[in-house]
């Protein structure tokens, strides 16, 4: 393959990866926007989403088969279920901690993450669970570039979800309220905006997006695992930071950039696919040290 | 004329398009009490923040005791000899009164981790010195009972004085007090005036205060500077300031009726 | 939140009250030391191994306590320092033929450097970011250990020689039990002395109000780095002795789960308070033993426990003042 071929192939890979990262990063950024907390358990909602999607798919596959339409139904089911789970977590675990010192709510989020991980670990015994979806490996050839249908569907679905989110945020009342709350929560309370409901809606949507990513990841990669939320959580956080935490377009952009960086990074001699995780963390640290507000984020006014 | 201890020349501070300070020139003489007054939003606390290194002015120079302070980090400014209190009392939570004051001695002592682990004689002597001097500062401001109580549980007036004791523990040459009389009753304000005078007379420390209570300011200051919209509009002894028409005008807008510049 | 704390206080209050009383404290400490000395005889060899583990955790948890409990920096990648200590010993003794005692200073030095490298970038970050960045560093270290030749890749290092001191070889599990007893005692003493020192207070000042601390002349960069470095050194010493105790180390011992367990030890017993941290270490190690029958659900029990504690009693099981006494 020529250099250009490799480049374009990695472009495709990067888009696919980036879609996952973007979907999960969106939840991170939205939740951070409204309650100024990095939801440590968010990656685990992606994982739970994968499992719920699997359960859904298994339930209907005898009727609808295992191809993409079935996966979509399972995905929708998972989005709703995990969306609700997200709201429950927010109400039960985070809401009471909002007035407590910073450290406390962070540890609570960590605790939630551990509960989710270990609950699934207990239920599955820690094994990789094959995600039986009959997606096939067909695709189209453009020159020596091969794009799977699956990849196109994946990126397309992610794009649809993100467009839907963007419309929601910019066109609906809730969307506007969400943006307002992320700027000044207390002021919103005074202006009569039902802040708790807005927060709940935000959690629902963020969790649902993560669940969508989880289900699609399960279908695409063919297996799910109790620990899969861990790494994606870190990557999604990196993506959100790159794009500017709190910014929705930023999360999308950041996800894309990280996906592409990783895909191209694997081609750098010496890095290869094993070190790509370290590479991503390296990017995270560099961004936080040199440009903590990311590409599209608002600078935080520190000092007195 | 006393020798100037602190001199600010041409200080300009803006945040984006918003100019907070415009060509500010000030000096604080040695062993004197001076005040900075002005309507709300005039830039007074920002000036303090520039002096103490929390804000970096866009231009100008700050000379203190022969040293340029402009590029220094806040903790270096304190080590150079300038201490401050805050507008909203900022005592350390969940720590005792004594522990709060002891924080001031940190920059005047040197024992590190190893000395602490080994409990060297020098470290033990330093710990005793820290405790003793902190108690002394507390005695100086008149808050000695309750030194083992959590500082933020004490009465507001006491907390203000503890903050001053904490600043004194850094052994400063210049003390910046940001609205030290806010929230105090008449009796406490009188005590504050006496405390400020004692700080100058007994410890030889210069004091610069930001204050809204003009009566108090007139009583305690040797010189008053008036700031309005980031610009100094007047400076001089209390009698002059009282009669200055520009000052009266600046305050007129604030209070609607003539500001009470006499006692 | 208040009423729940009252309930917990009622349950543990009398015990804590006992600990506040000076003569009672000395007697309790003495009794504890005697118990530690004779425990292997009373509880048998299996229990001795478990207790040795618990003592290792006391050292590690006290180290993390410096970073999280005193300085308030939520380090989720603490196992990295543990790894640095263990692998330094492994590499120096196996590849370079140095003996344990000569390698130990290098392990400490490596840990200090790691503390600066990991702590440095986090200095200006808010706590959420700090948590995730330290986690990232922890993963980087584990990953590197798993993929570098010199650290033995996924199979780790084995055949690490036991150390000897004044001709006596520390080899049996009983030997290591007493070694860790000594380490734990040293760790406790060092922690007490640090907590009640100028640096210990500085950590609290910076933790409670960074800006006010700076205004009082405290260099928060130095203070925070000191916390990381000191915490790292605890971790490395624990790691060094862990390596020679087991004789073999693999990257799996230094995972995020390990960091979390150490963090749990710090929090469950009462963040920042030394007796609480010791209690937490024992809970984290002895708990799974007592809950053996639950199998993989053991960690779930801990996670749920942690969640409940955060919701109902954020200062941990141990009540009392939150000052670092």
Explain this structure.
The complex is a heterotrimer of chains A (about 300), B (about 260) and C (about 325). Chain A has about 300 residues and is mainly alpha-helical. Chain A contains eleven helices and four strands. Chain A has a two-stranded antiparallel sheet with strand order 1-4. In chain A, strand 2 (about 140) and strand 3 (about 145-150) form a beta hairpin. The relative contact order of chain A is 0.20. With about 260 residues, chain B is α/β, with parallel strands linked by helices. Chain B folds into two domains: about 1-80 and about 170-265, P-loop containing nucleotide triphosphate hydrolases (Rossmann fold); about 95-170, no CATH class. Chain B has helices spanning about 45-50, 75-80, 95-100, 115-120, 120-140, 155-170, 185-205, 215-220, 240-245, 245-255; strands at about 5-15, 20-30, 35, 60-65, 65-70, 80-85, 175-180, 205-210, 225-230, 230-235. In chain B, the strands form two sheets. Chain B has a six-stranded mixed β-sheet with strand order 6-7-8-3-9-10, sandwiched between helices. In chain B, helix 5 crosses helix 6 (about 155-170). Chain C has about 325 residues and is mainly alpha-helical. Chain C has a single domain (about 1-310), classed as ABC transporter involved in vitamin B12 uptake, BtuC. Chain C has twelve helices and four strands, in the order H-H-H-H-H-E-E-E-H-H-H-H-E-H-H-H. In chain C, the strands form two sheets. In chain C, strands 1-4 form a two-stranded antiparallel sheet. A two-stranded antiparallel sheet of chain C has the order 2-3. The two termini of chain C are about 25 Å apart. The interface of A and C includes residues 37, 96 and 121 of A.
């Amino acid at each position: 393959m020529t250099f250009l071929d490799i480049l374009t192939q990695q472009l495709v890979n990067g888009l696919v990866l980036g879609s996952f990262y973007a979907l999960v990063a969106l939840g991170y950024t939205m939740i951070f926007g409204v309650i100024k907390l990095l939801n440590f358990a968010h990656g685990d909602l992606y994982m739970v989403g994968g499992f719920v999607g699997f359960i859904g798919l298994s339930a209907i596959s005898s009727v609808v088969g295992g191809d993409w339409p079935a996966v979509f139904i399972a995905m929708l089911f998972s989005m709703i279920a995990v969306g609700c789970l997200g709201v429950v977590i927010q109400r039960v675990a985070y809401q009471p901690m909002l007035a407590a010192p910073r450290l406390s709510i962070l540890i609570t989020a960590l605790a939630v993450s551990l509960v989710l991980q270990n609950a699934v670990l207990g239920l599955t015994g820690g094994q990789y669970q094959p995600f039986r979806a009959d997606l096939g490996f067909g695709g189209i050839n453009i020159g020596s570039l091969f794009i799977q249908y699956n990849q196109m569907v994946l990126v397309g679905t992610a794009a649809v979800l993100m467009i839907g989110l963007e419309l929601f945020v910019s066109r609906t009342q809730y969307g506007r309220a969400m943006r307002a709350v992320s700027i000044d929560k207390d002021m919103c309370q005074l202006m009569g905006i039902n802040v708790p409901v807005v927060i709940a809606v935000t959690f629902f949507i963020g969790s649902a997006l993560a669940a969508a990513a989880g289900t699609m990841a399960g279908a695409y990669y063919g297996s799910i695992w109790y620990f899969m939320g861990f790494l994606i959580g870190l990557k999604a956080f990196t993506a959100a930071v790159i794009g500017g935490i709190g910014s929705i377009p930023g999360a999308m952009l950041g996800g894309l950039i990280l996906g592409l960086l990783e895909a191209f990074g694997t081609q750098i001699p010496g890095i290869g696919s094993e070190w790509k995780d370290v590479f991503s963390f390296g990017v995270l640290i560099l961004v936080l040290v040199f440009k903590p507000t990311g590409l599209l984020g608002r600078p935080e006014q520190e000092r007195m | 004329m006393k020798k100037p201890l602190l001199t600010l020349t041409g200080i300009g501070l803006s945040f984006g398009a918003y100019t907070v300070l415009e060509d500010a020139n000030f000096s604080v003489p040695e062993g004197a009490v001076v005040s900075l007054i002005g309507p709300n939003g005039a830039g007074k606390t920002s000036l303090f923040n520039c002096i103490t290194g929390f804000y970096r002015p866009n231009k100008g120079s700050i000379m203190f005791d022969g040293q340029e302070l402009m590029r220094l980090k806040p903790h270096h400014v304190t080590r150079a000899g300038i201490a401050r209190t805050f507008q909203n009392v900022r005592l350390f939570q969940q720590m005792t009164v004594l522990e709060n004051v002891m924080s001031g001695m940190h920059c005047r002592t040197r024992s590190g981790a190893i000395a602490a682990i080994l409990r060297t004689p020098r470290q033990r002597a330093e710990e005793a010195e820290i405790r003793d001097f902190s108690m002394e500062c507390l005695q100086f401001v008149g808050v000695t009972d309750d030194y083992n109580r959590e500082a933020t549980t004490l009465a507001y007036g006491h907390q203000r004085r503890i903050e001053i004791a904490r600043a004194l523990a850094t052994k400063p040459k210049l003390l910046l007090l940001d609205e030290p009389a806010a929230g105090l009753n008449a009796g406490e304000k009188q005590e504050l005036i006496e405390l400020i005078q004692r700080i100058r007379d007994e410890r030889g420390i210069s004091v610069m205060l930001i204050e809204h209570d003009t009566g108090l300011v007139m009583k305690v200051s040797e010189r008053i500077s008036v700031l309005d919209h980031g610009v100094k509009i007047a400076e001089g002894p209390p009698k002059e300031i009282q009669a200055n028409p520009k000052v009266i005008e600046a305050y007129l807008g604030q209070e609607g009726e003539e500001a009470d510049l006499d006692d | 939140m208040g009423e729940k704390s009252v309930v917990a206080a009622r349950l543990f209050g009398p015990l804590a009250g006992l600990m506040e009383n000076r003569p009672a404290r000395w007697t309790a400490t003495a009794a504890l030391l005697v118990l530690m000395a004779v425990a292997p005889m009373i509880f048998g060899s299996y229990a001795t191994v478990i207790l040795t583990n618990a003592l290792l955790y006391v050292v590690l948890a006290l180290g993390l306590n410096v970073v999280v409990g005193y300085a308030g920096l939520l380090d989720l990648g603490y196992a990295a320092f543990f790894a640095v200590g263990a692998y330094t010993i492994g590499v120096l003794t196996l590849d370079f033929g140095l003996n344990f005692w000569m390698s130990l200073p290098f392990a400490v030095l490596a840990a200090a450097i790691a503390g600066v490298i990991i702590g440095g970038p986090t200095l200006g970050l808010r706590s959420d970011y700090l948590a995730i960045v330290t986690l990232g560093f922890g993963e980087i270290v584990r990953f590197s250990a798993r993929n570098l030749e010199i650290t033995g890749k996924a199979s780790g290092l084995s055949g690490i020689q036991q150390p000897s001191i004044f001709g006596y070889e520390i080899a049996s599990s009983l030997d290591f039990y007493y070694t860790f007893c000594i380490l734990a005692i040293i760790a406790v003493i060092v922690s007490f002395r640090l907590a009640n020192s100028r640096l210990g207070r500085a950590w609290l000042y910076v933790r409670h109000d960074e800006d006010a601390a700076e205004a009082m002349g405290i260099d928060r960069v130095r203070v925070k780095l000191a916390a990381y470095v000191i915490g790292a050194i605890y971790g490395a010493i624990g790691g060094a002795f862990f390596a020679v105790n087991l004789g073999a180390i693999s990257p799996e011992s230094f995972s995020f789960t390990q960091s979390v367990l150490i963090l749990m030890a710090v929090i469950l017993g009462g963040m920042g308070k030394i007796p609480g941290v010791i209690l937490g270490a024992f809970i984290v190690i002895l708990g799974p033993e007592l809950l053996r029958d639950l199998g993989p659900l053991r960690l779930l029990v801990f996670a749920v426990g942690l969640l409940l504690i955060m919701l109902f009693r954020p200062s941990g099981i141990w009540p009392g003042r939150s000052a670092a006494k």
